[in-house]
Write a structure and sequence with these properties.
Elements lengths: L2 H15 L6 H17 L4 H15 L2 H4 L4 H16 L15 E6 L6 H14 L4 E6 L4 H14 L3 E2 L7 H14 L4 E6 L7 H14 L3 E7 L4 H13 L4 E5 L8 H10 L3 E5 L7 E3 L2 H8 L5 H11 L2 H12 L5 H13 L3 H6 L14 H12 L3 H5 L6 H11 L3 H23 L12
Parallel strand pairs: 1-4, 1-5, 2-3, 2-4, 5-6, 6-7
Antiparallel strand pairs: 7-8
Helix pairs in contact: 1-2, 1-5, 2-3, 3-5, 5-12, 6-7, 8-9, 10-11, 15-17, 17-19, 19-20
Length: 439
C-alpha cells in the first residue's frame, strides 16, 4: 500500500533534510519531484496541481526558509496537506435514530461488494449490533451463494430468494423482515455490472426511492486507480453516494485512487479493505494513512490491531507465566497464532516507523506454519519440558511435522532464546505488560 510513492517521497525528503539552509529554488525542485511522484502514483492531475500549489503557498515563507529545520518544516506542511487531501478526520457510517439502519452498497462487478458486505456485518456484530445481510444481486446467481456462505462464516443471517425477480421488492421485504426480527442494521448487496449502463442505474435508483437507505456507500477497487475515481463520480452524479469503501488496498502499491477519490467526489472514504480475509476491513483514518505514506508508520493502528487480538486477562495470564518462568511451547504456539491473526505480518511491520526503509527485512509466513507443525508433533511432556527432547525425539518430531532435524534444532534454539529474553523482562524493575500487547 503506497509502497512506490513512499519510497519516492522518502528520497525527496532526504535531499531537503540534508540541506542546512533552503532557498526558494530548492523547494521548487522538491515540489516538482513531489508532483512527478504523485502523477506516477496515478493521482488525478488536477488534484496534484492543487496539492502542490497549497504546499508551495505555505512553504515559501520566511518562517519556513529561515527556521532552524527548514526541511522538517516542509515535511510537516506536506503531512498536513496530505491529511487534508485524505479527508482530515475519520468518517464512520451514520446510524439511524429509528432502527434498522439501511446501508446500500453499490459499485461495478468485481469491486468486492459481496465480501465487503460480510466484512461490514462482522464489524457491526463485534460492536454488539444485530446485522442482516441482503442478497440483492439477482444478476449473478453465485453472488447469493457467496453471501450465504460468508453469512454462515460470521453467524449473520442472509435474506435471500433465488426465485425473486425484482431486487426492489426483495430489498423492501428485507427491511420489513429486519423489523420483525429486531435487526438494527440492514446491508444491501446490490447487483454490479462490468460497466455502467442505464438498466443498472435505473435499478439502483428504484431501490433508493423505495427503501430510502440511511447511507449509500460506493465500493471501489483501489487497483483500478483513475478508473475507480471516474466510476465513483458517475455513480455519485446519477445515484448520489454518502461515502466510499476502497477494496484491495493491499494490492495497490501506488495509491492513486485513495489520494484522488475524496477530492474529485467530495465524499469521504469510510473503510479500506486490506486483504481477502473476512476481518481485513479497517476504518479509514486520514492522519494515519498520511503517516504511512510519509514512512512514519501507524503506531496507533498497530496498537488497535493488538488490542483486538489480546485482551487484558490473557495479558495478565502471560505475565504470570513469565514471572513464574513457566513459558512452555504451548504458550509459544498460542502467541504465534495470535500474532498471525492480527493480519499479514508485512502489513504490521509497515505500521512501525522506519520499517519501510529496511529493505532486507522479509517475512516468510510459511516459517510460522512450520514452527507450529513442529510444536504440534511434540508430546505434552515435551512441550512442557523441552530438555526431554534428545536426538531420537528430535528425529521423531521432524518426521511427524514433515520437517528436518535442523529445523527442529532451530525452533528449540529460538525457544531457549525467547525464554532467556523473558527472564530479562522479569528482572526489570516495575515490569508491567502494556494493555493489549502479548509481551
Amino acid at each position: 500500500m503506497f509502497e512506490s510513492l513512499t519510497e519516492k517521497l522518502d528520497t525527496i525528503f532526504k535531499k531537503l533534510k540534508g540541506k542546512g539552509l533552503l532557498k526558494e529554488e530548492d523547494i521548487d525542485i522538491a515540489l516538482k519531484e513531489i508532483r512527478l511522484a504523485l502523477l506516477e502514483a496515478d493521482v488525478n492531475f488536477k488534484v496534484v496541481k492543487d496539492f502542490v500549489q497549497k504546499i508551495r503557498g505555505k512553504a515559501i515563507g520566511k518562517e519556513v526558509l529561515e527556521s532552524l529545520t527548514p526541511g522538517q518544516q516542509v515535511i510537516k506542511i506536506v503531512n498536513e496537506e496530505l491529511c487534508a487531501l485524505l479527508g482530515k478526520t475519520n468518517s464512520r457510517i451514520q446510524l439511524s435514530p429509528n432502527p434498522p439502519t439501511t446501508i446500500m452498497l453499490i459499485g461495478l462487478h468485481g469491486s468486492g461488494k459481496t465480501t465487503t458486505a460480510a466484512k461490514l456485518a462482522r464489524l457491526f456484530k463485534k460492536e454488539g449490533r444485530r446485522p442482516l445481510l441482503v442478497a440483492a444481486d439477482l444478476q449473478r446467481p453465485a453472488a447469493i451463494d457467496q453471501l450465504v456462505m460468508l453469512g454462515a462464516q460470521i453467524d449473520v443471517p442472509v435474506f435471500h430468494s433465488k426465485e425473486a425477480t425484482s431486487p426492489v421488492t426483495l430489498c423492501v421485504d428485507s427491511v420489513q423482515k429486519a423489523k420483525l426480527d429486531a435487526r438494527d442494521i440492514v446491508i444491501l448487496d446490490t447487483a454490479g455490472r462490468l460497466h455502467i449502463d442505464e438498466s443498472l442505474m435505473s435499478e439502483l435508483q428504484k431501490i433508493k426511492k423505495n427503501v430510502l437507505p440511511k447511507e449509500i456507500v460506493f465500493v471501489a477497487d483501489a487497483m483500478t486507480g483513475q478508473d475507480a475515481v471516474n466510476i465513483a463520480t458517475n455513480f455519485n452524479e446519477q445515484i448520489g453516494i454518502d461515502g466510499i469503501i476502497l477494496t484491495k488496498m493491499d494490492g495497490d502499491a501506488r495509491g492513486g485512487a485513495a489520494l484522488s477519490i475524496i477530492s474529485v467526489t467530495n465524499k469521504p472514504i469510510k473503510f479500506i479493505g486490506t486483504g481477502e480475509k473476512i476481518e481485513m476491513l479497517e476504518p479509514f483514518y486520514p492522519d494515519r494513512i498520511a503517516s504511512r505514506i510519509l514512512g512514519m508508520g501507524d503506531v496507533l493502528g498497530l496498537i488497535e490491531q493488538a488490542q483486538k487480538t489480546f485482551d487484558q486477562k490473557e495479558a495478565e495470564k502471560l505475565k504470570k507465566t513469565i514471572m513464574d518462568e513457566s513459558f512452555t511451547f504451548d504458550d509459544l504456539r498460542e502467541q504465534l497464532r495470535k500474532m498471525r491473526s492480527m493480519g499479514p505480518l508485512e502489513n504490521l511491520l509497515n505500521m512501525i516507523p522506519g520499517m519501510n526503509k529496511m529493505k532486507d527485512v522479509t517475512i516468510d509466513e510459511k516459517e510460522f506454519v512450520k514452527v507450529e507443525a513442529i510444536i504440534n508433533s511434540m508430546t505434552k511432556k515435551e512441550r512442557k519440558n523441552y530438555s526431554l527432547i534428545n536426538g531420537s525425539r528430535r528425529r521423531r518430531i521432524a518426521i511427524g511435522s514433515g520437517t528436518t532435524v535442523p529445523d527442529v534444532n532451530r525452533v528449540l534454539k529460538q525457544y531457549v532464546e525467547i525464554k532467556r529474553m523473558l527472564k530479562m523482562f522479569k528482572g526489570k524493575k516495575g515490569f508491567k505488560l502494556p494493555k493489549g500487547f502479548p509481551f
